[in-house]
Amino acid sequence: MKNLLQFILSVLFIIAFSQCNNNPQLPENTITDQDGNNYPICSACNQIWTAKNLNTSKYRNGVNIPRVSDPVQWSNLTTGAYCSYNNDSSNDAIYGKLYNWYAIHDTINGGICPNGWHVASYSEWETLASCLGGRNVAGGKLKETGNAHWNTNVDASNTIGFSSIGNGNRDTTGTYFSLKEIAYYWTSTESDFDSRKAFYYTTNRSNSVLDLDVWDKKDGFAVRLVKD
After folding, report:
1. For the chain, which residues make up each domain, given as ranges?
2. Whole-prediction pTM
């Protein structure tokens, strides 16, 4: 009886606080970026998130974000840019583009988000993690299930339809790492002890943790948006 009650309460919690509308055929459940790409959305704890990595090549005002393939040029950037994993644009439709932090922090061209949306901050990620039971288990609840976009996939349940996948990253030397191994997500929040760095979160193929760290703004990570 106790187990049944716990199950009922958990179901009611999910219904009340976590709901995902993930049907791209329904316009009211998607947003569209400056390139015309559509994104399903999901919701949890009074937040509405994109359920797919950002893939725009333009800032809000229509200005092109520079696409930088050359590793030396990438490593010297202090302005906004994006790349495709392994410089292969066919990866973009699946994993999204990888942006350096300067692109997501753009203040000249209106930013990289559609109107009414913004890049998720450290505090918004923390709210999401807390809602899902804390960072030790939130990563598993955010990960897409199965192995289509993960080499292995431990403790994945995709509870709210966030559908985190192993998008990998591009480091400060311009080298690509960790496709189908780790999902890297920039936050909009700078490090409070090193102005060259900003906060980011990861989900990992091998565990259920939503990990937090700070890293160089020159790195290329994926981006998720939250509704204003």
Report:
1. 51-227
2. 0.88
